[in-house]
Description:
This protein is an alpha/beta fold and 271 residues long. It contains seven helices and nine strands.
Amino acid sequence: xxxxxxxxxxxxxxxVNVVPDIAIILGTGLGELVHEISxxxxxxxxxxxxxxxxxxxxxxxxLILGKLGDKDVIAMQGRFHYYEGYMMQExxxxxxxxxxxxxxxxxxxxxxxxxxxxxxxxDIMLIDDHINLFPEHPLRGKNHKELGTxxxxxxxxxxxELRIMAMQIAKESNIKLQHGVxxxxxxxxxxxxxEYNWFRxxxxxxxxxxxxxxxxxxxxxxxxxxxxxxxxxxGIIGKIVEVTHEDVQEAAKIAQxxxxxxxQEVIKRIS
Length: 271
Ligand code: HPA
């Protein structure tokens, strides 16, 4: 695995002049931030050695390298979900490649269902913390010391300084920013009412099918993480309505300019 990571990192390094310090994962319906990236180099996933092979025919996504404001970034448009059938090592392989490239900040976005009674569809939730309910752990198995410690600390999994920065930016620009705990589940079903209720009881504010594996590996790699959920549907008994993937995409699309603005401002302010 270590060789594969290095091989892929070398491939990417050879495609660009500057290797960035910041990586961004763009979730469902949240790909538009890439339009803000200038002097772009785009690398389709299928052309990257050792990258997971897409389960969706045609477009599996791409890596985009370029400038966001005055900072060099690498963005993933499209991610690998566990429910698609990938192994956890495949879901998190891009994070290992980012680590090999020397990335120290990871920005993540996703679409999620809201269980907190004060949340509305279209709200942005800053992720304070998570609960990992995936059936498999991305760090299970042999630990490579070169990559990180056997028992990683997760007490600041979503970096506090970055979160404070995001909250300040939202306040300054009058953007409503919720915050809370993200519950990560395997999907691909949305939750039953009883499941949403259970996730609320155990301390969750939002639930989704991604992010947690990548954030665990990023913490193992000692990256600083900032992550946002767009609340695309509501999982509160009495308010639950049928939800489709299209509804999720539509709600994410509406909220994304505000989330993109906060992300961009945080990126501007980190030195
Ligand atoms: N549950 C799980 N994943 C999701 C949801 C949800 O309600 N909405 C968007 N992704």
